[in-house]
Design a protein that fits this description.
The complex is a heterodimer. By secondary structure, chain A is mainly alpha-helical. Chain A is built from 24 helices and twelve strands. In chain A, the strands form six sheets. Chain A has a two-stranded antiparallel sheet with strand order 1-2. In chain A, strands 3-12 form a two-stranded antiparallel ribbon. Chain A has a two-stranded antiparallel sheet with strand order 4-5. In chain A, helix 16 packs across helix 19 (433-446), helix 21 crosses helix 22 (523-535) and helix 22 packs antiparallel against helix 23. Helix content of chain B is 28%, strand content 15%. The chains are: A mainly alpha, B alpha/beta.
Chain lengths: 563, 452
């Protein structure tokens, strides 16, 4: 594993995660760190690298806080429960983001507007459901007025909504509302009950640990219902399907084999592909692309004009590389481009007859880093951004921390002029002694991408001068990565089979799965995941199964006694 | 309570179908006498400092000539207060980079928690470690209105510490609304208004919502006993928000007609940005007029933005632009133009509010707004001599002047600047919150002496 310690060689300033040593800071914890265990996220970035051998003798439990459904999970869940595909979460306040991840549990608590939005969404969902599909939702073959059908609905639909059977108390609470409303008619009573269900915490939060009658100690395996929810919400961002519920009911979610069977089944669903797209979007911070306006001397695109196209082409690339080819090597080197008509024109290709058929741009493109969406993301409005591209490769792809620039340094991209090349303008970074330490490692990578402009177009000339795309990878402490290269295609080839890249992707996906930045309690789980991912030669399905089988995913800490 | 009337269209539909806001007309709202004046409070934020050479007026006290940036506010000069030598002293410590520390402490007077939010330059921090001043004020004066406060934003799309100025508590930020249509839908769409005879029609939703929320409250309580103590706190916080929604059901304004719904705009679009900002100012004006809320925050973009202002012909990207030499002619003129445009939004708000009479005064006379940014000068990330601007508050301190908050030490002869937390104390005092402390104790001495 490549660790942040590698950056020590860069002679940058001295912060490496967290605060400066000796600098006081107020209450620890919130704002996105791990939640209930005391591990320091700052110590974990190296993932158990050179700082001494990791001993993993006992089960590591991870943490299991209440987790609000994320926006995408809310939408998928109501679609699966009610057939409603209106995406109510589009009206929810934006999710907070921790280093790209918007599913961070600690950073996403309820706020006044979210509670209101839950109310509004529940009202609309319930009204639509009762108006359009009452007979399927709450069938009643007997007398609607005697209350039995209402109780049947509460038990049956409630179990779907809460992802477990309701307790007697919970049933009684809903029955009280149902009975009080029944005089306004059966449909209205169902509607209000449904509204209350959709605003209940048992629906809105994933509850991993409803406590046992007696205090617990040690690492606890999740119960079958809780494990069904974890599997389903991690791999498919939605509520457990019938097969998972069945497996939970018959207690078949305990062994490695049982879990792997269910996980591999879920991974072949369309929702799993959507999950992977969502993960990549968060990992790479693709929401930064929203509102991107890009222009060059010959074309101008206004804000958001090309963004949907870029996202579309990237999504199809990801589906193909991560699921058809299925491995890291393909993700980093697949030369395919799935072009929309607009992008085909922009990139000088024939407009595809079938948008699902890629063109292969073997000499010009190689993998994720040369996808138009990524290149346009890592650009200024009027020029490419070698520094951003270098930072991106180091931070997102290699999980190396890039230190902040020293205080009062000017971070302005050079003014565009029509005579020189972008590289010449940015080269001043490395000409100044104060900047060279860091920028040699950033720009050295970024300059290798100079054959792609701010619109993601391939170019061999810039302002009538040949583009120099020679680059150099420095100070990764990985002899297979470090060294000079020519162009992003060559760099991608080097990254494709790199252990550090695999480990980094494993760490990022684990963060997504757990909804938090890893802490010291996760190191052993992470090692299990990385080992399996590597053993499978970087197959994504193996990675995801590996996360499911890791301690952090399967166990929770004991429940303290609550008064 | 007084009768409030707002019974004409406030939005005209343009041929394009997009809603266009028009300033409120004085005749739209005539209000009766009120027992005690209703006060309103607004925090406003714009990113990346100010160009100081275009910010500070010439002259002293009330004999000042406003500088370039404040030209849109000339007509409201008597309401304006500029403060010199106020520092964000509390931004000097704690986790985070200069933008993070600045925005975190600006309206909270606190420092940042540890955390994993990374600023563009690699520093890490969490949320601010305390309530913001608008929320402290809302806790006192916002409880009799349907919304204790409104959080509005324009392209404030960084959803981490750099994109939040309002906190209901330590580590509990309130996200701004970025889409005028969402603001409209939230506060006006379901508003039940009196019929032609001034009678309130029955609201069929009211009883339903009450009983549903009661049930939700019971389910929250049922779950609470079965989770860890930390999760229990989460559920308690959730329950109290459900109760807030419930409380709101019984607080419908006496008389207030709805404005027309604005069109849907793209919160990420640089071309929609001016319309979004103007609509939000207008919706806020109407919310104040209808007494739907008395406290608001207004946030334009965020520190590390790369936003252009094409309607001002300012095509630099926000954060990099702010790092240019402030006297470089091109970046200077772009940054001044942007700041002027921001000042123009304040002018628009006060134009709107000054057109609504309230007793013998107008709402503008009963409104206090504070505007600042998270670094003093964008190119050096300083936190000294912050460009604070106040509008209104004339009932509590003398306005229409430049106030030097610095104190010269009699022994050393050195100028000692004031902590901005003292200013926050003055603001809460002006709004009726009597406490003389706020934020981190180390950075507060009491109300700002220079404004006393």
């Amino acid at each position: 594993m490549l660790g942040w310690f590698a950056l020590g060689a860069l002679a940058c300033s001295n912060t490496v995660g967290g605060t400066l040593p000796g600098q006081p800071s107020p209450a620890a914890g919130a704002g996105g760190t791990g939640m209930t265990t005391g591990g320091s996220a700052g110590t974990s970035m190296g993932g158990g690298g050179a700082g001494g051998a990791l001993t993993c003798s006992s089960v590591s439990t991870g943490v299991a806080p209440l987790r609000l459904l994320t926006h995408i999970q809310y939408d998928n869940t109501v679609a699966d429960l009610l057939g409603d595909t209106t995406h109510p979460s589009s009206q929810f306040p934006a999710e907070n983001e921790v280093n790209g991840f918007t599913n961070n549990v600690a950073a996403n608590q309820v706020n006044p507007r979210l509670v209101e939005a839950y109310q509004t969404a529940a009202e609309s969902l319930a009204a639509t459901a009762v108006a359009s599909r009452l007979a399927t939702l709450a069938p009643c073959a007997t007398d609607e007025q005697n209350g039995d059908c209402g109780r049947d609905f509460i038990a049956a639909f409630g179990a779907r909504a809460f992802r477990r059977a309701l307790t007697t108390d919970e049933q009684t609470i809903f029955a009280k509302l149902f009975d009080a409303t029944l005089s306004q008619g059966y449909p209205k009573a169902i509607e209000l009950t449904l509204r209350a269900m959709l605003q209940s915490p048992q629906f809105l939060y994933r509850v991993d640990a409803v406590h046992a009658a007696t205090p617990e100690s040690g690492a606890m395996t999740l119960g079958p219902n809780e494990m069904a929810s974890r599997l389903s919400y991690f791999l498919t961002n939605t509520t457990p399907d019938a097969a998972l519920l069945q497996a939970a009911a018959s207690n078949q979610l305990g062994t490695d084999a049982e879990l792997e069977t269910q996980a591999r089944r879920l991974l072949e669903t369309a929702r799993a592909r959507e999950m992977a797209r969502d993960f990549v979007g968060q990992w790479l911070g693709l929401q930064r692309l929203d509102g991107a306006a890009r222009q060059a001397t010959d074309v101008t695109y206004g804000a958001t004009e090309l963004v949907p196209d870029w996202k579309d082409t990237l999504g199809k690339f990801l589906d193909d590389a991560m699921w058809n080819d299925g491995n890291v090597s393909a993700l980093m080197t697949s030369p395919k481009l799935f072009l929309t008509p607009k992008l085909a024109t922009l990139y000088g290709q024939a407009v595809p007859t079938d948008p699902n058929l890629p063109v292969t741009a073997g000499k010009e493109r190689s993998g994720l880093l040369t996808q138009p969406a990524i290149l346009a993301l890592l650009a200024h409005s009027d020029q490419s951004a070698p520094v951003l591209r270098g930072v991106f490769v180091r931070e997102k792809i290699l999980c190396l921390q890039v230190d902040p620039p020293p205080p009062n340094v000017v971070v302005v991209p050079p003014m565009v002029d029509q005579t020189g090349t972008t590289r010449e303008r940015f080269a001043q970074h490395t000409e100044q002694e104060a900047c060279r330490g860091c920028h040699a490692a950033l720009d050295g990578i970024g300059f290798g991408f100079e054959r792609y402009d701010q619109l993601g177009r391939y170019r061999e000339m810039e302002n009538n001068q040949p583009v120099d795309d020679s680059g150099e990878v420095l100070d990764t402490l990985d002899p297979l990565l470090d060294g000079t290269f020519h162009g992003a295609v060559e760099l991608a080839g080097r990254l494709a089979n790199d252990a550090g890249v695999r480990d980094c992707i494993a760490t990022q996906w684990y963060r997504y799965a757990m909804g938090r930045v890893e802490d010291s309690s996760d190191l052993c789980s992470l090692q299990q995941v990385k080992t399996r991912f590597s053993a499978g030669n970087g197959q994504f399905r193996d990675l995801l199964v590996g996360i499911v089988l890791s301690d952090g995913f399967r166990y929770r800490p004991a429940m303290e006694t609550t008064p | 309570m007084s009768a409030r009337r707002l019974n004409r269209r406030l939005f005209l539909r343009a041929a394009s179908g997009m809603a266009v806001a028009v300033p409120l007309l004085p005749s739209l709202m005539a209000r009766g006498q009120t027992a005690a004046p209703i006060r309103r409070f607004v925090t406003m934020y714009t990113p990346n400092g100010q160009i100081h050479s275009a910010w500070w007026p010439t002259g002293t006290d009330s004999a000042i000539t406003l500088n370039e940036i404040h030209q849109p506010l000339v007509k409201h000069q008597s309401r304006l207060t500029l403060l010199k030598n106020v520092d964000l002293k509390s931004a000097a410590g704690g986790p985070g980079g200069p933008h993070q520390r600045g925005i975190g402490t600006l309206y909270t007077g606190q420092q940042l928690q540890d955390g994993e939010f990374v600023d563009g330059c690699g520093s890490r921090a969490g949320w601010a470690n305390g309530i913001s001043i608008d929320q402290a004020i809302a806790a006192q004066i916002g409880q009799s209105t349907p919304y204790a406060s409104l959080e509005l934003g324009v392209r404030a799309t960084e959803n981490d510490v750099q994109g939040r100025i309002a906190y209901s508590a330590a580590g509990a930020p309130l996200p701004p609304m970025l889409q005028p249509l969402d603001v409209y839908n939230r506060i006006f769409k379901d508003l039940v208004v009196p019929d032609q005879n001034g009678q309130m029609p029955p609201d069929p939703m009211l009883a339903e919502r009450r009983s549903v929320l009661d049930t939700v409250g019971d389910q929250l309580a049922a779950l609470e006993t079965k989770v860890s103590s930390e999760d229990k706190q989460k559920l308690k916080a959730h329950l109290s928000l459900v109760r807030d929604v419930e409380r709101r059901l019984s607080q419908v304004p006496l008389t207030c007609s709805k404005p027309n719904a604005p069109g849907a705009l793209d919160p990420n679009s640089e071309t929609d940005m001016p319309m979004i900002a103007q609509l939000e100012i207008d919706l806020l004006s109407i919310a104040f007029a209808c007494d739907l809320a008395r406290v608001a925050s207004f946030e334009i973009s965020t520190g590390l933005n790369r936003i252009r202002y094409p309607w001002l012909n300012s095509m630099g990207e926000g954060h990099p632009l702010s790092h240019m030499d402030p006297e470089d002619p091109d970046s200077h003129s772009q940054l001044v133009a942007r700041a002027q445009w921001h000042a123009g939004l304040i002018a628009r708000l006060f134009d709107n509010l000054a057109a609504i009479s309230e007793g013998d005064a107008t709402i503008a006379d009963n409104t206090l707004l504070v505007w600042c940014t998270e670094v003093s000068e964008g190119n050096v990330h300083s936190h000294t001599n912050m460009p604070f601007l106040l509008m209104g508050g004339g009932w509590h301190f003398r306005t229409g002047r430049l106030v030097d908050a610095g104190v010269t030490d009699s022994a050393t002869g050195q100028l000692k600047s004031a902590s901005h937390v003292d200013l926050l104390v003055t603001l809460q005092n002006a709004m009726g919150v009597e406490s003389e402390t706020f934020g981190l104790p180390a950075f507060v001495t009491g109300p700002l002496q220079a404004l006393a």
